[in-house]
Amino acid sequence: MDPELINDCVHCGFCLPSCPTYVLWGEEMDSPRGRIHLMRQHVEGTPVTPEMAGHFDACLGCMACVTACPSGVRYDVLIEQTRAEVERLHRREPRERAVRGLVFGLFPYPRRLRLLRPGTRLAGRLQPFLERAHPSLGAMAALTPRAGRRQRLPRLVRARGERRAVVGMLTGCVQGEFFPQVNAATARVLALEGCDVVIPAGQGCCGALSVHSGRSDQARRLARRTVRTFGKAGVDTVVVNAAGCGSSMKEYGELLGADPGFRVVDLSEFLAELGPAAARHPLPLTVAYHDACHLAHAQGVREQPRSLLAGIPGLVVREVPEAAICCGSAGTYNIFQPEAARDLGDRKAEAVVSTGAELLVSANPGCTMQIAAAVRRGGGRIRVAHTAEVLDASLRGVSL
Q1: Which phi-psi region, left, alpha or beta, contains residue 214 (left: φ > 0; alpha: ψ -120 to 50)?
Q2: How many whole angstroms separate alpha carbon 85 and alpha carbon 39?
Q3: Which residues contact 265 (CB under 8 A, 6 or more apart)?
């Protein structure tokens, strides 16, 4: 934990209304400035106690406080440093260690995730039994979507019409295995907008889940593999369609101590920079756009997806109340902190439903699963789609 970064906090309290856990509980130690106070205590010699670790674990890492802070406190850096320290010094209970071992031995590895695909239809039925074994296992079952049909993407998707750019595309772990239609839509949109899309075979995890959870060694190992993969592909720009992945990959220089050799850019960010070339066909829909925290707060990408959606004839975009408050997904948070995540998910679902939209649009697979599960839990139903899927339908002139 960097003492200089800790000292940047002047404890003004501007972060409090933006912090999801403070909004839920009103506890000072579950606010950003409260956690920074605990960080200072540890730097000054206080050992990491179970109670202290609990307050750090309760943080979603949503980075809303970074956006809200007038003093420019790098809480994003501090919480990652702190979580690495907690993982190094804090001894968790055996059941918790086992669940964490399962999650981090499974989710960052697409081939292992693939083994779960046949069981996704049974997840709902198994949820009560898994809940009794461990709340985290029950949460995993409740969140699991039915896996879409696998869609194999070629290593190269050629630009339609005049080639305007050459980009690499990250396929991701959860995105690739549980939302393959999003990757297919992403490749088509980029091609229709004049891009050659390079999709290297054998992609693994980018390391996002690990770095956000303090597992620095695993994160660096996975990040180095990703850098090698795209380095061999010979691209200088990598487009990412999952907010958490893009956020972490943009920080590879800090994680690895060296520039990765390519630029990382979110899909909506890239398309906004490139400018439209393909014709948009009307989509008579009312959509609610959800700001994924690691897109809006961590990457500062807010206007670009809204602008892209607004450019579709017939489509109406409605804003979600309390847009800056996290939905409770936050990578693995809804697995390891299921009660708090459930409360935040229910709050977000209520806000989404209040818009009256026909479709929820999000740019992160975790958010999509979290909000969809919360809407179902409340007895409602709403269709969900990625920004890429909406653009794809408009560009091809098909219904969504």
Answers
A1: left
A2: 10
A3: 237, 238, 239, 240, 246, 273
Sign (positive/negative) of CA torsion 342, 347, 351, 354? positive
Q: pLDDT class for 148, splitting at 50, 70, 90?
A: low
pLDDT surpassing 70 at residue 47: yes
pTM for the full predicted model? 0.90
User: Using CA atoms, how far apart are residues 360 and 385, in angstroms rounded to an integer?
Assistant: 6
Q: What is the largest CA-CA distance in the chain?
A: 63
CA–CA dist 113, 226 (Å, integer): 18
- Structure confidence at residue 112 (pLDDT): 84
Round to whole Å and give the CA distance between 349 and 173: 25
Residues 6+ apart with CB under 8 A from 129: none
DSSP for 365-392, please give it: HHHHHHHHHHHHHTT---EEEEHHHHHH
Q: What is the pLDDT of residues 242-273, one digit of tens each?
A: 999 999 999 999 999 999 999 999 999 999 99
Looking only at the bridges linking them, the beta strands covering 383-386 and 359-362 are: parallel
Extract the tokens encoding 367. 């958010």
CA dihedral (67, 173, 224, 88) positive or negative: positive
Could you count the other beta carbons within 10 Å of the beta carbon of residue 149?
7
| 283-323 confidence digits (pLDDT tens) | 999 999 999 999 999 999 999 999 999 999 999 999 999 99
Phi then psi dihedrals of residue 288, to 5 deg: -105, 120
DSSP 3-state of 318: strand
